[in-house]
């Protein structure tokens, strides 16, 4: 994931969480909001319930990998905040990717 495709500022993160729409399933909560840029951006949040820092970073790397492998599904002009739920520990990488893509496709249908 390129650095210019990351939501880094705390006020941007909070703006998306507070005023954006959300969609969720057993493994993810994804907040999304339109931006005035000609690109999509992502923010990833993994809570302390997932495990220690090693596990949290492992799952962040997995999410970044999923994001990079599925660029064709993202709409420009959208910011996404991805929050992992504890249930993500129970499934393997391919199922995690399928669930993520399913939610992104749902967001694309809503935005049409």
How would you describe what is shown here?
Strands 1-2-4-3 form a four-stranded mixed beta sheet, with helices on both faces. A hairpin with a 3-residue loop joins β1 and β2 (28-34). It is an alpha+beta fold and 112 residues long. Helix content is 41%, strand content 21%. The chain contains three helices and four strands; from the N terminus they run αβββαβα. The chain is globular and about 35 Å long.
The H-and-E topology, N to C, reads as HEEEHEH
Unreliable residue runs: none
Find the structural class using helix and strand composition: alpha+beta
The outline comes out as globular
Topology:
Elements: H1 10-19, E1 21-24, E2 28-34, E3 41-46, H2 53-69, E4 78-84, H3 93-111
Parallel strand pairs: 3-4
Antiparallel strand pairs: 1-2, 2-4
Question: Quick gist of this model?
Answer:
The protein is of the alpha+beta class. It has helices at 10-19, 53-69, 93-111; strands at residues 21-24, 28-34, 41-46, 78-84.
Keywords:
112 residues; four-stranded mixed sheet; 3 helices; 4 strands
């Amino acid at each position: 994931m390129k650095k210019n495709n990351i939501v880094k500022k705390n006020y941007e993160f909070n703006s998306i969480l507070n005023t954006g729409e959300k969609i969720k399933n057993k493994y993810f909560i994804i907040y999304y909001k339109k931006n005035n840029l000609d690109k999509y951006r992502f923010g990833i949040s993994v809570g302390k319930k997932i495990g220690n820092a090693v596990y949290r970073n492992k799952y962040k790397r997995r999410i970044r990998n999923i994001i990079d492998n599925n660029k064709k599904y993202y709409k420009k002009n959208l910011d996404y905040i991805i929050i992992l739920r504890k249930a993500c520990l129970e499934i393997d990488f391919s199922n995690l990717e399928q669930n993520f893509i399913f939610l992104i496709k749902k967001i694309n249908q809503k935005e049409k």
